[in-house]
Design goal:
The structure is a homodimer of 123-residue chains.
Chain A lengths: L14 H9 L4 H8 L4 E2 H7 L5 H13 L3 E5 L7 E5 L1 H19 L1 H15 L1
Antiparallel strand pairs in A: 1-3, 2-3
The first copy, chain A, binds a DNA duplex (20 and 20 nucleotides) through helix 3 and helix 4.
Chain lengths: 123, 123
DNA sequence: CAGTATCCTAGATGATACTG
DNA sequence: CAGTATCATCTAGGATACTG
């Protein structure tokens, strides 16, 4: 069969689909949302996003940078100092994420209950 | 506030974290968002959420049902007729998802470009 | 401090075939 | 039509150790 376009035209089913391809994963939304509160250094971010490993954090940051969501600034100092900021695009994404944050807060009890049940039948 | 359960106590870092634990995955947001446009039958949904397999669709629907996001109605007919609706909680979630949908539409070109680049360096 | 480099596993996803 | 049941795959994510 013939190869489809090199660019392949993902042809998103909708805007949500497109967004998900960017922020899918366990950490990206959290990183973006935390950075929305202001620029921050690597170590700070690492502490803020609880549970993330160096490997994952760096990997996600690089992707976000390539995606134009985050900007990395290396101050070329010793000891190293690097900070991360949202680009304007990143800020707009963070704003779009805000309602999910609110929803989670509003329904935190329900969410916790659901997760507890999942534990139950996976044991 | 005090800990409720000493055992699991997920202790979300924020509302966004909580939300993500519910809708993580490739399909759930799309399912919820499509159902927001009205109740629909299994087959319809299957066609709407492009690329999903029976296995995944059913699995995600069951989880969403257990989570109180979706309601399943079996009309007990032959041939089978089953439809799926959002619960009020589901609707509120869909509303929280809407901005992501808009963001994706607004930035679809940028997103497509990013995905194309990913293809490039993964080959 | 801010990363790299390996190795490894669980769980998420996919393909295919079958059924009431 | 609306699912189940298996098997195969894949890759996101985690553990650990090391470095400029």
């Amino acid at each position: 069969m013939a190869d489809i376009e090199p660019t392949s035209a993902p042809a998103f089913t909708c805007g949500l689909d497109a967004t998900l391809r960017i922020i899918a994963g366990k950490w990206k939304p959290l990183i973006v949302y935390f950075l929305a509160q202001g620029p921050c250094r690597y170590g700070e971010l690492r502490r803020a996003v609880r549970g993330v490993s160096d490997k994952m954090l760096i990997q996600q940051l690089k992707e976000l940078e390539a995606e134009g969501i985050v900007r990395r600034t290396d101050h070329k100092e010793v000891p190293p100092r690097v900070d991360y900021t949202l680009t304007p695009l990143g800020h707009s994404l963070a704003e779009a994420l805000a309602p999910l944050c609110v929803w989670g807060s509003d329904n935190m009890a329900a969410v916790a209950r659901v997760l507890a049940e999942r534990e139950t039948w996976s044991r």
